[in-house]
Amino acid sequence: MSQDMSPPQSPLVPALLDLDDTIQFNCYQVISCFNACCKQADITLAPYDIIRLKQRLGMSSTEFLKKHTVPFEMDASGMPGVKLRTTDEEPVCLLMTDQGCSVYADRPSACRYYPVGLMAMRPSDAPSEEHHYCLVEEPHCKGHQEARKLTVAEYRQEQGVEEYDELNREWYQIILKKRSAGPSVGKPSPTSFQFFFLCSYDVDRLREFTATQSFRNTYALSEEDYAGFGDDVSLLQFGYRLMKQVLFGEESIPLREGALEERIEKRRDIIEARRQLEIEMHRQKQDPYQSPCEG
Ligand code: SF4
Ligand code: SF4
């Protein structure tokens, strides 16, 4: 199974399908290729996939990321992505059993869609992104030889992808926007990628971040807002807003009065400290025998 749910990077150029288009496919437990796709797993995870899986497995997102994923770069700019971990020797998904997927009801979006691929793209002249679909035909998958015909819309409904698409949609928009902003503002900083990783994938660490004093001093949120952060999905959606605010300056979260000035003041202190250090280093260069401890 090779399925990338992020905006497409695949070298394949398959025919584009829309919701009304018909596909011929079926998959069931006694099919001859049962589990073959999970033995060739290449599953990119989206934020809501991680929430479903970490809840299913009863662990924090931080633990889940450590135990069940591997990092990779989603594009040439180095945007961080995560894939489901497989066995070391072969690409066998660690969540696969002889009876099938051990997390079936909470399987990731890419597994639900397979062999349909979701392609989110934003043509330069379009106001928002467009969604298309494609059919991925891999030799190991015999489901394409089955007689059943259904539309892409019916397949999506059968596989329960709508909830996933709904909760991942804003994230795809952020990726597309970050990509399109890239070349004009240079390579994104490592800090912006760390922030993207935190808000996208590690909801439990994001919760810790929102509980810090510096976060509370910066944003003017109510106790009701903070209580809502106990819910993973609500916090994920807040994380999307936070990313848009921090990365693109789209202000939707109110700042505390004076918070911005305070941050600029702190920044000024750092810049002044750096300046003093540079003066000192310059002075030492001119007088190499003077100890830094001497006045
Ligand atoms: S999560 Fe489940 S469906 Fe997806 S590759 Fe792993 S075993 Fe297969
Ligand atoms: S038909 Fe395709 S999707 Fe279904 S088990 Fe076989 S390889 Fe996997």
Category from helices, strands and their pairing: alpha+beta
Overall 3D form = elongated
The SSE string, one letter per element, is EEEHHEEEEHEEEHHHHHHHH
Bound molecules: iron/sulfur cluster
Strand order of the largest sheet: 1-3
What is the alpha-carbon Rg in Å?
Answer: 24 Å
* Span between termini: 68 Å
| Tally of domains | 2
The mean pLDDT is 87
Number of helices: 11
Helix content range: 40-55%
Number of strands: 10
Most strands sheet: 2 strands, parallel
Which runs of at least 5 residues are low in confidence (pLDDT < 50)?
2-11, 287-295
Measured by DSSP, the beta-strand proportion falls in 5-15%
Please, could you describe this protein's structure?
The chain has 295 residues and is of the alpha+beta class. It has two domains: 2-168, no CATH class; 176-248, no CATH class. It contains eleven helices and ten strands. It has helices at 47-56, 61-68, 109-113, 152-159, 162-185, 190-201, 203-210, 213-218, 223-228, 232-248, 259-286, and strands at residues 2-3, 22-24, 42-43, 69-73, 80-84, 96-97, 100-101, 116-121, 130-135, 149-151. The strands form five sheets. A two-stranded parallel sheet has the order 1-3. A hairpin with a 2-residue loop joins strand 6 (96-97) and strand 7 (100-101). Helix 1 crosses helix 2. Residues 2-11 and 287-295 have low confidence and may be disordered. One iron/sulfur cluster is lined by residues 27, 31, 33-34, 36-37, 114, 140-143.
Entry summary:
Helices cover 45% and strands 12% of the residues. By secondary structure, the chain is α+β, with helices and mostly antiparallel strands.
